[in-house]
From TrEMBL:
GO MF term (any one): structural constituent of ribosome
NCBIfam families assigned to the protein according to its UniProt record, in alphabetical order: rpsB_bact
Gene assigned in the entry: rps2
Any single biological process term in GO: translation
UniProt source species: Pycnococcus provasolii
Name of the protein this chain belongs to: Small ribosomal subunit protein uS2c
Primary location class: plastid
Database matches in InterPro entries: Ribosomal_uS2 (IPR001865), Ribosomal_uS2_bac/mit/plastid (IPR005706), Ribosomal_uS2_CS (IPR018130), Ribosomal_uS2_flav_dom_sf (IPR023591)
Coiled-coil features, chain-numbered ranges: none
Pfam family membership, one: Ribosomal_S2
Localization (cell): Plastid, Chloroplast
Alphabetized PANTHER family for the sequence: 30S RIBOSOMAL PROTEIN S2 PROKARYOTIC AND ORGANELLAR, SMALL RIBOSOMAL SUBUNIT PROTEIN US2M
Amino acid sequence: MTELQALMKAGAFLGHRTSRWNPRMAKYIYARRNGVHILDLVQTVQCLDQARAFVKKLANQGGSVLFLGTSRHAAGPIMAAAARSNSFYVNQRWLGGMFTNWSTMRLCVHRLTYLNQCGEDGTFTTLPKREEAALRRQHARLKKYLGGLCGMEQLPNAVIVTGQSSDSHALAECRRSNIPTIGILDSDGDPTSVDLVIPANDDSAASLDYILTELTYCLSTGSR
C-alpha cells in the first residue's frame, strides 16, 4: 500500500464543511465535495516528508519533542505517540506560562514527581486524613495537567501539535520561546501559526495515529 493509499484509508483527506474553513489553508485544498473541503494528499505526503526529515535530524542531535493536543479527538493519539517515542506531552488544558514561565512550572513538575513517590511508597496513608485528602486532590490535579511533563528539566526542542485551533495560546508561547512547531492542520487551521504544516484531518483518530506513528518512528530511529 502506498502512503497516499494509507492516508486515504485513514480519512486524512477529509476537511471541514466549506462554511468552516480558514482561507489561508486554500493552497492545501484539492476540491469541494458535498459541502466539504477535500485536502490535497499529494501535498500531505510532501509535507510529511519534510516533517520526518526535521524530526529525524532533531533526534540525531539528541533533541527532545513535546506532543500537544488538547481536543477530545487528539488526547488519546497524543499520549500514545509520546509513550512510543519516550517523549513529553500535554493532552489536557494548556496552563498559561507552561513555557514562558517555565522556571515556576518546573517547580510544579518537581512537586508532582514528589507526590508520585508519596503515592508509591505509602507516605499518604501515614498522614492525618484531612492532610492526606488535600494532598491527594493536589496530586490528582497536577497529574491531570502536568503528568506528561514528568522528567522534563528544560524546554523541548520542538513541539508537534494537533487541533491547532484549540491550542493557540500554546503556539503563542512556542513562538515567544523560539521553539519550532510542526502542526497537523485541518481545513480550518492557520498555517502561519506553525513552522511546518502537515495538512490532514485532525478529527480522525486514524488520521492522527498514522501521521504521529510516522513521526515517532523517525524520533526512535533517529536517536539510535
